[in-house]
Amino acid sequence: MRNIPVNLQGHKLMVTEAPALKMFENDKGVQEVATDRNGVQQFIVSLFAKRKAQPGEFAGKGEEIKVTLTADPGEDFEEGTYIELIDATVSYWERNGRSGLSFRANGMTPLGAKASAAA
């Protein structure tokens, strides 16, 4: 299953590594910028995701996740910034005996800011 919408509103999302161009190593061992099918550059951001505790509840542990962004998020997302993701999705992947979840979003906004189509 691919691109399953995911609701992260019950979680606090904090930037742990500022957004940067997503890179990959090609067959020749050279670093290249990752692009989508249309040639649009992709970005990557590392976030710490932790469930928001309700009164009287324990929030539990959080987890660091990497999110691929389909648009340049801009410069205003330093380490420690709390954010909201725009149109977040998750996909399951399996390759070479490994598997996991990959997160993707159309952008992100600082927490409390009004969301735009592509931040």
Total helical elements: 0
Briefly note the structural class of the backbone: mainly beta
Rg is 15 Å
Q: What is the fold named in CATH at topology level? A: OB fold (Dihydrolipoamide Acetyltransferase, E2P)
- CA-based shape: globular
Instruction: Give the helix level as a range of percent.
Output: under 10%
What is the total number of structural domains? 1
The first-level CATH class name: Mainly Beta
Mean pLDDT: 89
- SSE run: EEEEEEEEEE
Strand content: over 45%
**Strand arrangement, major sheet:** 1-8-9-6-5-2-7-10
* First-to-last CA distance: 26 Å
Uncertain runs are 115-119
Structural overview:
- By secondary structure, this protein is mainly beta.
- The protein has a single domain, classed as Beta Barrel (OB fold (Dihydrolipoamide Acetyltransferase, E2P)).
- It has no helices and 10 strands.
- It has strands at residues 4-5, 11-21, 23-25, 31-33, 43-51, 63-69, 82-86, 89-95, 98-105, 107-110.
- It has an 8-stranded mixed β-sheet, with no helix packed on it. A two-stranded antiparallel sheet has the order 3-4.
- The two termini are 26 Å apart.
